[in-house]
Design brief:
Length: 83
């Protein structure tokens, strides 16, 4: 589904990207079973995030190897990100 935003004073129509996240979560404290989230933008898959007790992994679309981060590495990466 596309969201349309009309810019005033013109007849151009701009499309905002839509983001969709699909996930499976175990109904328990994460242990042996991981949580998986498939991330989509504008209907196209960007990748999959796997969250486990000790780390998280990002699998870009069609990747064979993930980018892996321990929780402390992820914390440092996010805190260092500037908007």
């Amino acid at each position: 589904m596309e969201r349309r935003v009309q810019k005033s004073l013109t007849f151009k129509t701009y499309f905002m990207p839509t983001d969709d996240v699909y996930g499976t979560l175990p109904y328990a404290l994460l242990g042996k079973q991981d949580a998986f989230f498939q991330i989509y933008q504008d209907g196209k898959k960007l990748g999959t995030i796997t969250i486990s007790k000790g780390s998280m992994e990002w699998y870009p679309k069609n990747a064979k190897q993930p980018y892996s981060f321990s929780w402390s590495e992820f914390d440092k990466m996010v805190k260092g990100y500037k908007v």
